[in-house]
Amino acid sequence: MEQSGTSPLLPGTVQDLAAGVVSALRGGDHAPPVVRTVADDGADRLLLAAVRVTGADLLLPNVLLRTAPHETELALFRRALEAFPPRADSAPAIRWSHWAMIRTLRRLEPPAPDGRRGDTPPEPDASRLDAAPWQVLTRQLAVLAALAVPGEECAVTRAARRRPVDVSRGFVRAVRRRDWQQAAGAGRWLTLLDGVPTTLGLEAGLDFVELMGGTDPRVALQVQAARSIRAGVFV
Fold first, then answer.
1. Which long-range contacts (CB under 8 A, 24 or more apart) does 120-124 make?
2. How does pLDDT run across 142-163, given as a tens digit for each residue?
3. HSE of 147 in the Cβ direction (CA atoms, 13 Å)?
4. Other C-beta atoms within 10 Å of 224: how many?
5. What span, in angstroms and rounded, lies between the C-alpha atoms of 105 and 120?
6. Are 187 and 154 in contact (CB under 8 A)?
7. Per-residue confidence at 4, pLDDT binned at 50, 70, 90?
8. How high is the pLDDT of residue 9?
9. Which of 189, 199, 191 lies closest to 154, judged by CA?
10. Could you tell me the maximum CA-CA distance found in the chain, to the nearest angstrom?
11. pTM for this entry
C-alpha cells in the first residue's frame, strides 16, 4: 500500500488485525478480526489502510481452514483493494501484495449467479528473485510471506522452491540480526519448501523467534501460520 500522510494510528490498527488473525488460527476466537474492529471503530479509511497493509493474511484462517469469510470482512477486503491500488511506478513487492489479495478474494468470494468467479490478473514480474543475493531473496520473501500458502502456485513460490538453502541461510541471518519479522516470514516459507537442511532446526528456530519477537502480533502471525501449515490444519 502506498499513501501520503500515514496516520500514526495505522501501526496499532495493523497490529490489532494481526492479533485477530493469530487468535483465529489458534482457534481461540472465531469472530472475524475485521468485524470486531468495525464494531469498535467503524469502517473508516484508517481501517481500510490497515486491511491493505495486512494484505491477504487477513483471510488466512479462512484459506487454511476452508471456511467462508464474514460478509462484512469480505466487503472491507474488497474496498481496501479498490482504495489502495498500486501505482504505475510501484515496487514489485507492492504489486505482488496487491495480486495476492486479489487471488485470495477470487478464491473466497461467492461465485456470480452464473457460477463464474472473477479473473485473477496476470502475475507481476518476479524474475529478479532468481539472480538476487540470498540476503535480498530472504528479505523479499519475508515481505511477501502472505504468498506462502499450501497448494498455491506463483512465480514467487517457484523462485523460493528453487533456493531452499539460500532461504535457510537468510532465516539464520535474520535470527542473528534479531530481525524477528524477517525471520518469521522466512520460517513460514521454509515450511513449504523441500530440500531444507535438517541441521537448520526449523521447529526450534520458530520457537525462538516466537519467544523473542512474539509480542509483536505481526511476528506471531507468521510463526502461527508456519505452525498451522506444518501441522496440516488445512483440509
1. 123/99, 123/154, 123/155, 124/92, 124/95, 124/96, 124/99
2. 999 999 999 999 999 999 999 9
3. 27
4. 25
5. 9
6. no
7. very low
8. 85
9. 189
10. 53
11. 0.90
- Nearest partner of 26 among 206, 215, 217, 224, judged by Cα: 224
- C-alpha cell read off for 226: 508456519
Residues in the chain: 235
Cell of residue 231, nine digits: 501441522
**Alpha-carbon span 132 to 123, nearest angstrom:** 19
Query: What secondary structure does DSSP assign to the chain, as a single string?
Result: ---SS--TTHHHHHHHHHHHHHHHHHTS--S-HHHHHHHHH-S-HHHHHHHHHHGGGGGHHHHHHT-PPPHHHHHHHHHHHHHSPPPTT--HHHHHHHHHHHHHHHHHSPPPTTS--PPPPPPPP-THHHHS-HHHHHHHHHHTGGG--TT---HHHHHHHT-HHHHHHHHHHHHHTT-HHHHHHHHHHHTT-S---GGG-HHHHHHHHHHHHTTSHHHHHHHHHHHHHHHT---
pLDDT digits (tens, 9 = 90+) for 14-43: 999 999 999 999 886 555 566 566 545 555
Cell for 144?
A: 511477501
